[in-house]
Design goal:
- The chain has helices at about 5-20, 30-50, 55-65, 70-85, 85-100, 105-115, 120-135, 140-150, 155-170, 175-185, 190-200, 205-220, 225-235, 240-250, 260-275, 305-310, 335-340, 355-365, 385, 455-460, 475-485, 505-510; strands at about 295-300, 325-330, 345-350, 370-375, 395, 410-415, 430-435, 460-465, 490-495.
- Helix 19 (about 385) links the parallel strand 4 and strand 5 (about 395).
- The two termini are about 45 Å apart.
- The strands form 2 sheets. A 7-stranded parallel β-sheet has the order 3-2-1-4-5-6-7, with no helix packed on it.
- The protein is globular and about 90 Å long.
- It is built from 22 helices and 9 strands.
Length: about 500
């Protein structure tokens, strides 16, 4: 739980105590009992906000032993369970509080938080909407509602929620950061930069905003500034794994980085991971060589994405008598490709809401023999899980062709072209080479009308590049220029969403 969320929970706990203080009176003995309960509740709240959850929970439970229908104690006991990650218990307790007190706005809010952490996003939306119906100016609820809408890929509603927060509280830093995330996903990159920058003006030590600003600066080819953002985030929080992973990834975009420098940065990432996670050393997998092998695929790109376009042609050709495939989706985004992939796996786990420890335990409980990372240091990766070594054999494949830096990953699946044998020393993983090619593109289902190329009708040879323009170095541009000058009447067609923005390579390339 971040600091802002902790502050919100402290406020909620204090409000609950004040609410309890306003309850009605009865006879003298009942009144004395209520005074005692109120004093106990206030003491529990003090323990709660100071982080002494076990002691606070003991008092909440004592209050409930006296008064089983004490809505505030039920709600606060549920909040404590949520803070400990016991969200099933939190849902049960807070739901009971709402049954007793339907207009309990904070309980609706916290029920939404518990549902969100359980990945029950539609129920989280309902709870948050119940809260804002009771209190329309509840900024924290609008912020969390926007977060859930974003995860459900209901992006217009996410933007509306965050803009509502900012209208209510212009200095709500998380809302500016979260709005930037949505802008980035819909390709409004300049707006994303503005949102992250505003969040950092309001809170200069906001590490998540530095990391996110770095991501969008990388999108628009401001690579040095992106690297500076990641390093600033790590200066503030040295164990911030996401920023360090992004730093490793962004280094691949710098033309003069040597392979050994890239390896060194990836190994530093492993050192960072080792400070927050320990390895699992026991794997009770059945060693019977005749049984089916259980293979886990971990990816945040199990939707309409190049990784899935390569994967979709392979999964239907796997013999289910020999291999049992379990997919672990680390992103909530889904579409027709997601449905298509689900048809060809034995089990599908939506794990975006899980902590790394929870995901590692799930992999081990599933009895996975070979766990395959499909992301490397790209978005939504869960490399920290691989560091924990939840499966006896681990590999990386398809989504990233450089080293992860994690010695817990045994193999990188490749071919002689993507990793020539003379480059083996640039990897901590052992290259496992496929014959001819390590991937195979899946033809799209869409019917595409093929027409004559422009060269037939105009005589102009058209060269094209549809890559992320951050990958286009000065050396690449110089090479392109030489080719164009040596091919008479030729043209270059560039396509990338960043070229729609004002702060990108438009000026550089021209």
């Amino acid at each position: 739980m971040n600091r802002a969320e902790k502050r919100r929970q402290e406020k909620l706990a204090k409000k609950a105590a004040k609410s309890a203080q306003r309850q009605g009176t009865g006879d003298a003995s009942q009144w004395q009992q209520k005074i005692g309960v109120q004093q106990d509740l206030e003491a529990a709240v003090q323990l709660h906000v100071s982080g002494q959850l076990a002691a606070a929970q003991g008092i909440y439970q004592r209050i409930l032993d006296i008064d089983p229908d004490h809505a505030e104690a039920l709600q606060l006991l549920g909040v404590a369970a949520h803070q400990e990650g016991r969200n099933d218990v939190a849902v049960e307790l807070i739901s009971r509080a709402i049954t007793l007190k339907p207009g309990y706005v904070d309980a609706h809010y916290n029920l939404g938080n518990a549902f969100r952490e359980l990945g029950r996003l539609e129920e989280a939306v309902m709870s948050y909407q119940n809260a804002v119906a009771l209190k329309p100016d509840y900024g924290e609820v609008h912020n969390n509602l926007g977060f859930v809408f974003h995860n459900l890929w209901r992006l217009d509603e996410a933007i509306a929620s965050y803009e509502k927060v900012i209208a209510l509280a212009p200095e709500f830093t998380e809302a500016h950061n979260n709005l930037g995330n949505v802008f980035r996903d819909i390709g409004q990159l300049d707006n994303a930069v503005s949102s992250y920058s505003r969040a950092l003006e309001l809170q200069p030590d906001f590490v998540e905003a530095y990391n996110n600003l770095g991501n969008v600066l990388l999108d628009i080819s401001r690579i040095d500034e992106a690297l500076g953002c990641y390093r600033k985030a790590l200066d503030i929080r040295p164990d911030y794994l996401e920023a360090h992973s992004n730093l490793v990834f962004a280094n691949n975009y710098i033309a003069d980085r040597t392979p050994m420098e890239l390896l060194a940065e990836a190994v530093r990432y492993e050192s960072c991971v080792s400070t927050v996670a320990s390895s699992i050393n026991f794997h009770p997998n059945d060693r019977n060589a005749e049984r089916r092998i259980r293979v886990g695929l971990v990816s945040g790109d199990l939707h309409d994405h190049p990784v899935s376009q390569f994967l979709a042609g392979i999964l239907p050709r796997i013999d289910p008598q020999k291999l049992e495939i379990v997919a672990y989706a680390t992103s909530t985004r889904s579409d027709g490709m997601t449905v298509r992939l689900k048809e060809h796996v034995a089990a599908w786990r939506d794990v975006a809401w899980m902590t790394d420890d929870m995901l590692a335990a799930t992999v081990q409980d599933d009895g996975i023999d070979v766990l395959v990372d499909l992301s490397g240091h790209t978005q939504h990766n869960r490399l920290s899980v691989f560091h924990r070594k939840p499966a006896p054999v681990q590999a990386t494949w398809l989504g990233y062709s450089a080293t992860t830096g994690l010695r817990a990953i045994d193999y990188i699946i490749c071919d002689q072209w993507i990793i020539p044998p003379q480059n083996d020393a640039h990897f901590v993983e052992k290259p496992w080479r496929m014959n001819d090619a390590y991937l195979c593109f899946t033809p799209p289902d869409a019917s595409i009308e093929v027409c004559d190329p422009p060269a037939i009708t105009t005589g102009a040879i058209t060269f094209g590049c549809f890559n992320n323009m951050a990958k286009v170095s000065d050396a690449a541009i110089a090479c392109w220029c030489e080719i164009l000058h040596n091919v008479p009447n030729s043209r270059l067609f560039l396509k990338d969403r960043s070229l729609d923005e004002t702060n990108t390579l438009n000026e550089t390339i021209s």
